[in-house]
Amino acid sequence: LLCMFIIFQLMQHSWLVSPLTLDPAKLLEEFPRWLEKLSARHQGSIIIIIDSIDQIQQAEKQMKWLIDPLPVNVRVIVSVNVETCPQAWRLWPTLHLDPLNCRDVKSLISAECNSANVKLTKEQEKKLERHCRSATTCNALYVTLLGKTIARVGNTGNIDETLQQCFQCQDTVSLYRLVLRSIQESLRSEKEKGLLRELLCVIGVSHNGVSESELMELYPELSSAVLASLVHSLHKMCLLTYGCGLLKFRHLQAWEMVRLEYMGEGENVISACRQKLVEYFTMQLSRDRVTWRSADELPWLFQQQGDKQKLHKCLLNLFVSQNLYKRGHFAELLSYWQLVGKDKSSMAAEYFDSLKEYEKSCEGEESMICLADLYETLGRFLKDLGLLSQAVAPLQRSLEIRETALDPDHPRVAQSLHQLAGVYVQWKKFGNAEQLYKQALEISENAYGAEHPRVARELDALATLYQKQNKYEQSEQLRKKSFKIRQKAARRKGSLCGFALLRQRALQLEELTLGKDTPDNARTLNELGVLYYLQNNLETAELFLKRSLEMRERVLGPEHPDCAQSLNNLAALYNEKKHYEKAEELYEKALDIRRRALAPDHPSLAYTVKHLAVLYKKMGKLDKAVPLYELAVEIRQKSFGPKHPSVATALVNLAVLYCQMKKQIEALPLYERALKIYEDSFGHMHPRVGETLKNLAVLSYEGGDFAKAAELYKRAMEIKEAETLLIGGKATSRHSSSGDTFSLTSALSPSAFLEHGQR
Length: 759
Prior knowledge:
Layout: H1 2-11, H2 24-41, E1 46-50, H3 59-62, E2 74-78, H4 102-115, H5 122-131, H6 140-153, H7 159-167, H8 172-186, H9 190-205, H10 212-218, H11 224-236, E3 240-243, E4 246-249, H12 252-262, H13 267-286, H14 292-305, H15 308-315, H16 318-326, H17 330-339, H18 344-359, H19 365-384, H20 388-405, H21 411-426, H22 430-448, H23 453-468, H24 472-491, H25 499-512, H26 519-534, H27 538-556, H28 561-576, H29 580-597, H30 603-618, H31 622-640, H32 645-660, H33 664-682, H34 687-702, H35 706-724
Parallel strand pairs: 1-2
Antiparallel strand pairs: 3-4
Helix pairs in contact: 4-6, 6-7, 6-8, 8-12, 9-12, 9-13, 13-14, 14-15, 14-16, 15-17, 16-19, 18-19, 19-20, 19-21, 20-21, 21-22, 22-23, 23-24, 25-26, 26-27, 26-28, 27-28, 28-29, 29-30, 30-31, 31-32, 32-33, 33-34, 34-35
Organism: Todus mexicanus
Subcellular location: Cell projection, Cilium
GO biological process, one term: determination of left/right symmetry
């Protein structure tokens, strides 16, 4: 498990090396070689720091890769207790951390006492010095806690009496017990003492701690004033701390003390507290609230209870598993499955069956988008497990759904293509992978522009693929292109790397716009509007986009292409706010300007055509959408040539529209032409060929040609089975001739809507 964690951490800092298998059986064997590859491609040193390594079960076995000669630029630093350090590790260069000396002890205690204006006598200082000489009483935690205990008594209490009580505590756990009892004595009522006990026990049995709001819900009788007072005392005395907004024990010794003090009666107290948390988080799941908290706590609590049946059921909650996996808890998720006694293949089949069952209840665009995410997560999980053949089907299904529910050119479709290509690369099917990466690159360039980091990612992926095929010249060209994009992105002060930078950039831009009307200031206003839009501050975004449009119309004239950009951005904003009539008017104005000012195959013209067409379709104005979908076909033909897959996608979009208008005769030749392009581009067994065959089958059936419909449908099913049988099941497809393209959802890709302009 530790190797898995180290791999995830290192992968966050390097994209140069392909991911390592996360199959536990092979991991320990392959990890040293993977680390060697990483070190060879990483500029500079790699330092891995592992604290308390002797606390890991079977540490010497799990960490045997440490014994092997490490790569020259890799250093590993571990901390370990002298008594439990394995013999083989004692030969390494070692730094011994000695116990605190008398001066250190005095300094620590004085610092704590000074913070509370407490003065110790010379005699008291000598007693403390004599006491803090053993191994258990001169460590930093014990001395700090001792100082805080004395400071807590202050000038109003009997320091000598407190010292006598402390001197009876010969280790940190017993000193913590004294601290807890002093906090208990300071409470006003038995009710508050009971709440303190409950609070500490619940935190103790949780996986990662409990938040204050969760404690308030768990114990309605707990007032915010009492909770604040308790937390303040416990935090001040080093019992509790905060981590990610959760209250947890600051030190292991504090938790050990609570276990001895409150849970020494047996398993009853622990079981009752666990059950309380189980009921709380189960109630959240029943309300379809799968938060990171419920995903973290519930499986772990079931594991602690030894309830394999409930753990199994919890893992089959697709959103729980997705939440754990997406946050990098792969090893934890895998350990849960091992506990319920399922091997990798059984686990894959169960997940796929659960997804197919869930798909039956999915209706509407949002639920289908969510379903696509689940399929993608499953595919990536199976890929990480090394189940490449079984990973293809869910990733392919995710791709199909996104093409249907979003748009074949949506950035999320590029994401699906990228993930699927990654499986084929590991599977050594380089031809399939290359075609998918190229499609992802094309979509990313159209959606984000040629200099976006997403484009750099696709270029890197293609470069790595070519390198694996010994096509070094092609690989080097793509690497250089990617490097230039990343360099520009790093230099760009307004790079969208976080809300803090966005706000900082917004303030800079705001200052710039206080000057007179100029094209540069108008562009700055437009960028400011885009930044506010990306922060979901739509009202402020609208204000700046309007100001940009007004300034451009005054300075450049209302027919200038820059005015079309402002109109387009305002239209996208109104579309997001569901003000469709306003969006329609502005898109139409932008289209009129761009038609007259730009070349027929210009990307900006294609952009406006596409989004106005989608808006018409959303509003039910299908007759007005038809000429725009036809224009989209023309633009793609001029841009890519008549036999490009992108043209086939545009033809399918137009065919779908005709089918919705009950014009099957017009749709038929479009589907047939798209089928020919897909077959020539991808081969006769590609999923897009299968979906187009199925749409043609539906048209033939509706036209009364049942024999042809049966033949086409049979071919479509053969293609479908070739994919889905890889995982041992058949996924229901929701493609049909009655609908293939829905509106582009702005929430999923805001930057695909708003245009920043050239700088």
